[in-house]
Amino acid sequence: MQASNFSLTPEELEQFERDGFLGPFDLYDEAEMEKHLAALRPRLLNSKKSIYHGEGAASAISNYDRHLDVEFLAEHITRPEIVDRVTSVLGRNTLCWRTEFFPKYPGDEGTDWHQAEDFSSLTDSQQSQILWPQDSPRRGTVTVWTAFTESSVETGCLQFIPGTHTTMNYDEKKGMDYDPEIVNKKEKGGVSRGFFGYDYRQLQKDADWSPDESKAVSQVMRPGQFVIFWSTLMHASHPNTTTDRMRLGCAARYLPTSVRVYPGLTQLQEFGSTLNLERFGNVLVSGSDEYGHNRFVDRTVDGHPFRVRELERTS
Length: 315
Ligand SMILES: O=C(O)CCC(=O)C(=O)O
Ligand SMILES: [Fe+2]
Hints:
This protein has helices spanning 10-19, 30-45, 71-76, 80-90, and strands spanning 21-26, 94-104, 110-111, 130-131, 142-147, 158-160, 187-188, 191-194, 217-219, 225-230, 235-237, 247-256, 260-261, 267-270, 273-276, 282-286, 296-297.
Protein backbone atom coordinates (compact mmCIF):
# COMPACT_ATOMS: atom_id res chain seq x y z
CA MET A 1 0.00 0.00 0.00
CA GLN A 2 1.30 3.41 -0.96
CA ALA A 3 1.47 5.74 2.06
CA SER A 4 0.20 9.29 1.56
CA ASN A 5 2.88 11.81 0.89
CA PHE A 6 2.26 15.45 1.73
CA SER A 7 5.66 16.71 0.58
CA LEU A 8 5.75 20.17 -0.97
CA THR A 9 5.78 20.38 -4.74
CA PRO A 10 8.78 22.16 -6.31
CA GLU A 11 6.46 25.15 -6.93
CA GLU A 12 5.33 25.25 -3.30
CA LEU A 13 8.90 24.97 -2.09
CA GLU A 14 9.93 27.84 -4.35
CA GLN A 15 7.04 29.93 -3.02
CA PHE A 16 8.02 29.13 0.58
CA GLU A 17 11.65 30.11 -0.03
CA ARG A 18 10.52 33.35 -1.70
CA ASP A 19 7.72 34.44 0.67
CA GLY A 20 8.81 32.77 3.93
CA PHE A 21 5.38 31.20 4.48
CA LEU A 22 2.94 28.81 2.86
CA GLY A 23 -0.65 27.72 3.43
CA PRO A 24 -3.24 27.36 4.72
CA PHE A 25 -3.39 23.58 4.56
CA ASP A 26 -6.17 21.30 5.84
CA LEU A 27 -5.47 19.05 8.81
CA TYR A 28 -8.66 18.46 10.84
CA ASP A 29 -12.18 19.15 9.61
CA GLU A 30 -14.12 21.67 11.65
CA ALA A 31 -16.20 19.21 13.65
CA GLU A 32 -13.13 17.09 14.40
CA MET A 33 -11.18 20.13 15.58
CA GLU A 34 -14.04 21.19 17.84
CA LYS A 35 -14.20 17.72 19.38
CA HIS A 36 -10.43 17.59 19.94
CA LEU A 37 -10.42 21.06 21.49
CA ALA A 38 -13.28 20.23 23.87
CA ALA A 39 -11.32 17.21 25.11
CA LEU A 40 -8.07 19.20 25.20
CA ARG A 41 -9.18 22.21 27.27
CA PRO A 42 -9.42 20.44 30.67
CA ARG A 43 -6.16 18.57 29.98
CA LEU A 44 -4.32 21.82 29.27
CA LEU A 45 -5.54 23.39 32.49
CA ASN A 46 -4.27 20.44 34.49
CA SER A 47 -0.50 20.88 34.44
CA LYS A 48 0.23 18.07 36.95
CA LYS A 49 1.91 15.99 34.29
CA SER A 50 3.46 18.87 32.38
CA ILE A 51 7.27 18.52 32.37
CA TYR A 52 7.40 22.02 33.86
CA HIS A 53 5.00 21.18 36.69
CA GLY A 54 5.42 23.14 39.87
CA GLU A 55 7.54 25.89 38.40
CA GLY A 56 5.02 28.35 37.12
CA ALA A 57 3.97 25.93 34.40
CA ALA A 58 0.26 26.60 34.66
CA SER A 59 0.72 30.35 34.67
CA ALA A 60 3.46 30.38 32.02
CA ILE A 61 2.05 32.40 29.20
CA SER A 62 1.97 29.91 26.37
CA ASN A 63 1.72 26.55 28.14
CA TYR A 64 4.94 25.25 26.56
CA ASP A 65 5.55 21.70 25.38
CA ARG A 66 2.30 20.07 26.35
CA HIS A 67 2.93 17.60 23.50
CA LEU A 68 5.18 15.88 26.04
CA ASP A 69 2.22 15.02 28.29
CA VAL A 70 -0.95 15.33 26.20
CA GLU A 71 -1.49 12.52 23.71
CA PHE A 72 -3.52 14.50 21.18
CA LEU A 73 -0.70 17.04 20.88
CA ALA A 74 1.89 14.27 20.64
CA GLU A 75 -0.09 12.97 17.67
CA HIS A 76 -0.57 16.45 16.28
CA ILE A 77 3.13 17.35 15.96
CA THR A 78 3.87 14.11 14.12
CA ARG A 79 0.98 14.24 11.63
CA PRO A 80 2.24 13.41 8.12
CA GLU A 81 0.31 16.42 6.74
CA ILE A 82 2.65 18.60 8.79
CA VAL A 83 5.87 16.57 8.93
CA ASP A 84 6.11 15.83 5.21
CA ARG A 85 5.80 19.52 4.41
CA VAL A 86 8.27 20.59 7.07
CA THR A 87 10.85 17.98 6.03
CA SER A 88 10.53 19.20 2.44
CA VAL A 89 12.14 22.37 3.75
CA LEU A 90 14.40 21.11 6.55
CA GLY A 91 15.42 17.70 5.24
CA ARG A 92 14.75 14.16 6.38
CA ASN A 93 16.23 14.43 9.88
CA THR A 94 13.88 16.77 11.68
CA LEU A 95 12.90 17.39 15.30
CA CYS A 96 10.17 19.31 17.08
CA TRP A 97 11.61 21.31 19.96
CA ARG A 98 8.71 23.46 21.14
CA THR A 99 4.95 23.77 21.16
CA GLU A 100 3.12 26.77 22.57
CA PHE A 101 -0.38 28.19 22.63
CA PHE A 102 -1.35 31.67 21.55
CA PRO A 103 -4.78 32.56 22.94
CA LYS A 104 -6.49 35.84 22.10
CA TYR A 105 -9.58 36.59 24.13
CA PRO A 106 -12.27 39.07 23.05
CA GLY A 107 -10.81 42.58 23.34
CA ASP A 108 -7.17 41.41 23.43
CA GLU A 109 -4.47 43.39 21.65
CA GLY A 110 -2.81 42.06 18.51
CA THR A 111 0.68 40.57 18.66
CA ASP A 112 3.53 43.01 17.90
CA TRP A 113 5.35 42.73 14.62
CA HIS A 114 8.42 40.60 15.27
CA GLN A 115 11.06 38.23 13.91
CA ALA A 116 12.92 35.53 15.87
CA GLU A 117 16.30 34.19 14.82
CA ASP A 118 17.69 32.49 17.94
CA PHE A 119 14.95 33.30 20.49
CA SER A 120 17.49 34.94 22.81
CA SER A 121 15.49 38.14 23.30
CA LEU A 122 13.16 36.52 25.82
CA THR A 123 15.72 34.72 28.01
CA ASP A 124 16.86 36.92 30.89
CA SER A 125 20.53 36.66 29.95
CA GLN A 126 20.01 36.81 26.17
CA GLN A 127 21.34 33.29 25.63
CA SER A 128 20.39 31.67 22.33
CA GLN A 129 17.69 29.04 22.55
CA ILE A 130 18.67 27.53 19.21
CA LEU A 131 22.04 27.45 17.45
CA TRP A 132 22.49 26.54 13.77
CA PRO A 133 25.84 25.19 12.54
CA GLN A 134 28.06 28.13 11.74
CA ASP A 135 28.41 27.22 8.07
CA SER A 136 24.63 27.05 7.55
CA PRO A 137 23.00 30.04 5.85
CA ARG A 138 19.77 29.27 7.72
CA ARG A 139 18.58 30.91 10.92
CA GLY A 140 15.32 30.74 12.90
CA THR A 141 12.89 27.86 13.10
CA VAL A 142 10.08 26.58 10.93
CA THR A 143 6.80 27.21 12.74
CA VAL A 144 3.55 25.39 12.05
CA TRP A 145 0.65 27.45 13.42
CA THR A 146 -2.64 25.58 13.59
CA ALA A 147 -5.96 27.36 14.08
CA PHE A 148 -7.68 25.49 16.91
CA THR A 149 -10.56 28.00 16.62
CA GLU A 150 -11.75 30.35 13.87
CA SER A 151 -8.91 32.67 12.84
CA SER A 152 -10.31 35.73 11.08
CA VAL A 153 -9.37 39.42 10.92
CA GLU A 154 -11.94 40.03 13.70
CA THR A 155 -10.74 37.26 16.03
CA GLY A 156 -7.06 38.20 15.53
CA CYS A 157 -5.55 36.10 12.75
CA LEU A 158 -1.84 36.15 11.90
CA GLN A 159 -0.38 38.73 9.52
CA PHE A 160 2.78 38.25 7.45
CA ILE A 161 4.92 40.57 5.37
CA PRO A 162 5.98 38.34 2.45
CA GLY A 163 9.69 37.97 1.67
CA THR A 164 10.97 39.58 4.89
CA HIS A 165 12.47 36.38 6.36
CA THR A 166 16.04 36.93 5.14
CA THR A 167 16.78 40.28 6.81
CA MET A 168 16.47 40.87 10.55
CA ASN A 169 15.05 44.24 11.61
CA TYR A 170 15.51 43.36 15.28
CA ASP A 171 18.56 42.64 17.43
CA GLU A 172 17.56 39.90 19.83
CA LYS A 173 20.63 40.54 22.01
CA LYS A 174 19.26 43.93 23.08
CA GLY A 175 16.80 42.29 25.48
CA MET A 176 13.39 43.62 26.48
CA ASP A 177 11.73 44.65 29.73
CA TYR A 178 8.91 42.42 30.92
CA ASP A 179 5.90 44.25 32.36
CA PRO A 180 2.51 42.50 32.42
CA GLU A 181 0.94 45.90 33.24
CA ILE A 182 1.36 47.05 29.63
CA VAL A 183 -0.80 44.24 28.20
CA ASN A 184 -3.73 45.68 26.18
CA LYS A 185 -2.60 49.24 26.94
CA LYS A 186 -0.47 50.29 23.95
CA GLU A 187 -1.20 51.39 20.43
CA LYS A 188 1.29 51.02 17.62
CA GLY A 189 0.52 52.68 14.30
CA GLY A 190 -3.04 53.16 15.57
CA VAL A 191 -3.49 49.45 16.36
CA SER A 192 -3.69 47.92 19.83
CA ARG A 193 -0.63 45.65 19.97
CA GLY A 194 1.91 44.13 22.32
CA PHE A 195 4.07 41.09 22.87
CA PHE A 196 2.53 39.40 25.93
CA GLY A 197 4.06 41.89 28.37
CA TYR A 198 7.04 42.91 26.25
CA ASP A 199 7.32 45.71 23.70
CA TYR A 200 9.09 44.26 20.69
CA ARG A 201 10.01 47.74 19.43
CA GLN A 202 12.75 47.75 22.08
CA LEU A 203 14.70 45.35 19.86
CA GLN A 204 14.59 47.44 16.69
CA LYS A 205 18.00 47.89 15.10
CA ASP A 206 16.84 51.31 13.89
CA ALA A 207 14.61 53.11 16.39
CA ASP A 208 13.13 55.29 13.60
CA TRP A 209 12.10 52.35 11.41
CA SER A 210 8.60 50.93 11.36
CA PRO A 211 7.22 47.92 9.48
CA ASP A 212 5.62 48.55 6.10
CA GLU A 213 2.15 47.36 7.03
CA SER A 214 0.80 48.20 3.58
CA LYS A 215 2.48 44.97 2.43
CA ALA A 216 0.97 42.81 5.20
CA VAL A 217 -1.28 39.87 4.35
CA SER A 218 -3.82 38.35 6.75
CA GLN A 219 -3.89 34.58 7.27
CA VAL A 220 -7.56 33.75 7.54
CA MET A 221 -8.08 30.13 8.58
CA ARG A 222 -11.00 27.98 9.60
CA PRO A 223 -10.58 25.74 12.65
CA GLY A 224 -8.30 22.79 11.81
CA GLN A 225 -6.15 24.50 9.17
CA PHE A 226 -2.47 25.34 9.52
CA VAL A 227 0.13 27.61 7.99
CA ILE A 228 3.93 27.16 7.84
CA PHE A 229 6.37 30.06 8.23
CA TRP A 230 9.95 30.92 9.11
CA SER A 231 10.19 32.55 12.56
CA THR A 232 12.44 35.13 10.89
CA LEU A 233 9.51 36.32 8.77
CA MET A 234 7.95 39.61 9.87
CA HIS A 235 4.79 38.38 11.59
CA ALA A 236 2.13 39.78 13.91
CA SER A 237 -1.57 39.36 14.54
CA HIS A 238 -4.66 41.54 14.51
CA PRO A 239 -6.36 42.44 17.80
CA ASN A 240 -9.41 40.37 18.72
CA THR A 241 -12.20 42.91 18.22
CA THR A 242 -15.04 40.48 18.90
CA THR A 243 -16.98 40.44 22.14
CA ASP A 244 -17.49 36.71 22.38
CA ARG A 245 -15.10 34.70 20.18
CA MET A 246 -11.76 33.50 21.50
CA ARG A 247 -8.95 32.79 19.03
CA LEU A 248 -6.57 29.95 19.83
CA GLY A 249 -3.47 29.07 17.84
CA CYS A 250 -1.13 26.19 18.55
CA ALA A 251 2.43 26.75 17.30
CA ALA A 252 4.82 23.82 16.82
CA ARG A 253 8.46 24.62 16.05
CA TYR A 254 10.72 22.40 13.94
CA LEU A 255 14.45 22.22 13.20
CA PRO A 256 16.90 19.88 11.54
CA THR A 257 18.81 17.69 14.02
CA SER A 258 22.01 19.59 13.15
CA VAL A 259 20.76 22.59 15.16
CA ARG A 260 21.56 22.71 18.88
CA VAL A 261 18.50 23.26 21.06
CA TYR A 262 18.97 25.14 24.37
CA PRO A 263 22.79 25.01 24.17
CA GLY A 264 24.18 25.38 27.69
CA LEU A 265 20.76 26.28 29.14
CA THR A 266 19.30 24.50 32.16
CA GLN A 267 16.31 26.78 32.57
CA LEU A 268 14.19 29.26 30.67
CA GLN A 269 13.41 32.58 32.28
CA GLU A 270 10.80 34.38 30.24
CA PHE A 271 7.45 36.11 30.66
CA GLY A 272 8.10 36.38 34.39
CA SER A 273 8.28 32.58 34.81
CA THR A 274 11.16 30.16 35.28
CA LEU A 275 10.93 26.77 33.62
CA ASN A 276 13.42 24.06 34.53
CA LEU A 277 14.62 22.17 31.44
CA GLU A 278 15.62 19.05 33.38
CA ARG A 279 12.83 16.94 31.86
CA PHE A 280 12.86 18.62 28.45
CA GLY A 281 13.55 16.52 25.37
CA ASN A 282 13.21 17.09 21.65
CA VAL A 283 10.94 14.85 19.62
CA LEU A 284 12.41 13.27 16.52
CA VAL A 285 9.57 13.47 13.99
CA SER A 286 11.38 12.19 10.92
CA GLY A 287 14.54 10.28 10.02
CA SER A 288 17.32 9.85 12.55
CA ASP A 289 19.74 11.88 14.67
CA GLU A 290 23.31 11.66 13.45
CA TYR A 291 24.73 14.39 15.69
CA GLY A 292 24.14 13.35 19.28
CA HIS A 293 24.26 16.92 20.58
CA ASN A 294 20.56 17.14 21.46
CA ARG A 295 18.48 15.33 24.04
CA PHE A 296 15.49 13.37 22.73
CA VAL A 297 12.43 11.73 24.22
CA ASP A 298 10.67 8.93 22.39
CA ARG A 299 7.43 8.84 24.39
CA THR A 300 5.10 11.11 26.32
CA VAL A 301 5.03 11.31 30.10
CA ASP A 302 2.15 8.79 29.93
CA GLY A 303 4.17 6.41 27.77
CA HIS A 304 2.54 7.09 24.41
CA PRO A 305 5.27 6.59 21.76
CA PHE A 306 5.88 9.38 19.24
CA ARG A 307 5.49 8.49 15.58
CA VAL A 308 8.68 8.95 13.54
CA ARG A 309 8.01 9.60 9.87
CA GLU A 310 9.98 7.44 7.48
CA LEU A 311 8.84 8.05 3.94
CA GLU A 312 10.03 5.94 1.06
CA ARG A 313 11.89 8.47 -1.00
CA THR A 314 12.78 8.21 -4.63
CA SER A 315 15.58 10.76 -4.39
O1 LIG B 1 -0.42 33.88 17.47
C1 LIG B 1 0.13 34.96 17.56
O2 LIG B 1 -0.49 36.00 17.76
C2 LIG B 1 1.62 35.05 17.43
C3 LIG B 1 2.26 33.77 17.01
C4 LIG B 1 3.75 33.85 16.89
O3 LIG B 1 4.34 34.88 17.04
C5 LIG B 1 4.51 32.63 16.58
O4 LIG B 1 3.92 31.56 16.45
O5 LIG B 1 5.73 32.73 16.48
FE1 LIG C 1 6.43 34.69 16.64
